[in-house]
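Predicting holo structure, molybdenum atom bound.
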Amino acid sequence: MAEFTRGFGARRRTPDPSLPPGQYLTDDFPVLSAGPTPRVPLDQWSFRIRTEKGLDTTWSWSQLMDLPIEDVHTDIHCVTRWSKLGTSWRGVSLDTLLAAVDTDLGYAMVHSYGGYTTNLSLDDLRGGKAWVAFEFDGQPLDPEHGGPARLLVPHLYFWKSAKWVTGLTMQKHDDPGFWEQNGYHTHGDPWLEERYW
Ligand SMILES: Nc1nc2c(c(=O)[nH]1)N[C@H]1C(S)=C(S)[C@@H](COP(=O)(O)O)O[C@H]1N2
Ligand SMILES: [Mo]
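Done. C-alpha cells:
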C-alpha cells in the first residue's frame, strides 16, 4: 500500500514530456462528432480551395490519390483532455494542395460535409503541419473518424482537424468557425493550453 502510494506520487511528479499540460493518455480512439456521420461515396467526393477572387481549384478522389502521399506519425490532443501518442496516418500535405492556388490572404475557413467549420491561419496549414488524411493505422479512415478524408492538424487541438473535409475558403480575417463561435480558442495550441476564451 505504501509502495503503491509512493509510486503513484512519483509518476505524478514526472509528467510525460510528450503530454501537453492538463492532458491524459488514452489508448482508445474516442469519437467526438457534433452531428451525424455523413457517408460520402468516393466517386462523389471532392476537395475544393476557393480564393479571394472566387476561383475554385477542385480535386476528385482519384486526382487526390495522384498527388504525393505522405506517412505521418504524430501525437494528437483533444481539448476534452485526452491525448493519443504515436498515431499513424497517410495523407496529402496542405503544402501540396495550396501550391496549386494563388492567394494573398492569411487565413482559411475549413468546411466539412454536414456543415462543420473551423478557422486556421495559413501559417498553421503550411510548412509540413497539415494534411488531408485518408488512412489511419494502415486502413482507410473510418467514417466515424472522418472518412473518406479529414483534415489532420496535429500541432493544434483536435477540433481543428475537421472530419469529412470538403474544402477551404481563403479568408482575409480569422473569422471563427463552429466551435470557435461557441467559446473555443481561435488558435488552439495544446502546449499553450489555448482551450477556451
Ligand atoms: N466535421 C467535423 N469534424 C470534427 C468534429 C465534428 O463534430 N465534425 N469534431 C472535432 C472534435 S471536437 C474533435 S476532438 C475531433 C474528434 O475526432 P475523432 O472523432 O476522430 O476522435 O474531430 C474534430 N473534427
Ligand atoms: Mo474535441
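Residues 1-11 have pLDDT under 50 and may be disordered.
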